[in-house]
């Protein structure tokens, strides 16, 4: 495997999942814009879904305004509906949602979810489950803006207590409300190889 250049930061390419709407709390939009700027300031490339509206647009604009590199990946059917961002470093138009997610995962060294809806949660849970299955060793994190993910974390603890999610899997998620701390912990995290998740006596 080719070694990265010595000046490449840890987590040199971060894939971010977030909403295509702004949400009702103005802190969500501000946090998305600030997170994009934080990635750029740290020399990290942003990979995201390619939209120019909502949190997605604020995230990309924050990174671009700070001089960062931003790669958007968007399915062709959603280019018009999602109002694809035309000022990115690179905009990749793909054929399907599946191809979009595959490319984003391939381009990323880590995954972070910001506030968002069903699509954001689906994307997060997919890459998280891939990590649980040992298909990648890339850290997954939640930027918990204004406690947005508090109810989700409560549910995950409930799922763990109920025997459906192993504690080691829950611990794969790095959670913090501060962007700098979140990225620092994710960069320092050494992901374990988890045991096989399905056993005959538990299915």
Quick overview of this protein structure:
By secondary structure, the protein is α/β, with parallel strands linked by helices. 41% of the residues lie in helices and 16% in strands. Residues 1-6 and 196-203 have low confidence and may be disordered.
Secondary-structure blueprint:
Layout: E1 13-17, H1 26-41, E2 45-48, H2 54-65, E3 70-75, H3 78-81, E4 90-94, H4 97-107, E5 110-113, H5 118-132, E6 140-143, H6 150-161, H7 167-170, E7 173-176, H8 179-188
Parallel strand pairs: 1-2, 1-5, 2-3, 3-4, 5-6, 6-7
Helix pairs in contact: 1-2
Explain this structure.
This protein is α/β, with parallel strands linked by helices and 203 residues long. The chain has helices spanning 26-41, 54-65, 78-81, 97-107, 118-132, 150-161, 167-170, 179-188; strands at 13-17, 45-48, 70-75, 90-94, 110-113, 140-143, 173-176. The chain has a seven-stranded parallel sheet, sandwiched between helices. The radius of gyration is 17 Å and the shape is globular. The termini are far apart.
Features:
single chain; 203 residues; alpha/beta; seven-stranded parallel beta sheet; 8 helices; 7 strands; 16% strand; globular; disordered N terminus; disordered C terminus
């Amino acid at each position: 495997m080719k070694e990265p250049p010595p000046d490449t930061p840890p987590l040199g390419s971060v894939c971010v999942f977030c909403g295509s709407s702004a949400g009702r709390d103005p802190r969500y939009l501000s946090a998305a814009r600030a997170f994009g700027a934080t990635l750029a300031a740290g020399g990290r490339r942003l990979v995201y879904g390619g939209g120019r509206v909502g949190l997605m647009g604020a995230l990309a604009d924050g990174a671009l305004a700070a001089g960062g590199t931003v790669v958007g990946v968007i399915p062709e059917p959603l280019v018009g509906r999602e109002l694809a961002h035309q000022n990115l470093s690179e905009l990749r138009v793909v054929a399907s949602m599946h191809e979009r997610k595959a490319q984003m995962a391939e381009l990323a060294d880590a995954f972070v979810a910001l506030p968002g809806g069903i699509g954001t949660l689906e994307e997060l849970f997919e890459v998280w489950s891939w990590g649980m299955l040992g298909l990648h060793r890339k850290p997954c994190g939640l930027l918990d803006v204004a406690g947005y993910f508090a109810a989700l974390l409560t549910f995950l603890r409930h799922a763990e207590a109920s025997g459906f999610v192993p504690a080691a899997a829950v611990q794969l998620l790095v959670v913090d409300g501060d962007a700098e701390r979140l990225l620092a912990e994710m960069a320092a995290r050494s992901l374990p190889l988890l045991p096989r998740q399905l056993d005959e006596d538990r299915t």
